[in-house]
Write the structure tokens for this entry.
Amino acid sequence: MVANADEEERGQMPKVVDKARMRDEILEAAMGVFVEKGYHASSVSDVARAAGLAKGTLYIYFDSKEAMTTAIVDRHFATLEGQIAGGEPCETLDAFLDELYATMDIPAEEASFHRVFFEVFGPSFASDAFTCHVARFFDRLGAHYADRISYLQQRGEISDQLHAPSMARALASMMDGVVLHMGLFDINRRRYRRMLRETIMMFGAGLRPIPDKRV
């Protein structure tokens, strides 16, 4: 970064800006504005004012309101992917189901984001570009679970008659739906956990190999 003339005359070093932190602060301000005013009633100027920045400075980081929207969604999904992906695959179906339960047993405050998400970004799904952007997250989630299911099929833990990619995408849809219900309909924690156990039990039953009755 080049110092301006005043800074050079005073012998001061220019202020170093943490760009990643600044982006996060802008996105936090944007989310607050979108929730308060509504997405379509909000402007870039509103976000800049909430972030304590000049509009021109904000444009250095995001060239439009739509770019901020996409970045907020990306940040949310990146956090989810960080929680789900990684680690060694489970060795048994029961361990896999326990892992799914732990993944879906999210805090109530995290579930509440989904209500805000649809209130703020629901209209954005009219955009094919935005919809495709969100769909790519579920494509990656489906691919992750397809690998997990295929591995357990090789170990004889899951029926080899099932199509792993299809089951994995169904799993991703199921997870999304159950978590959405908690956030959108204020399901209390006790009821949610019971619903979660039953859902995973049903899914697990459909994955188990069918015993050979001829034996």
About this structure: Residues 128-154 form the longest helix (27 residues). The CA atoms of residues 37 and 70 lie 18 Å apart. The radius of gyration is 23 Å. DSSP finds eleven helices and no strands in the chain.
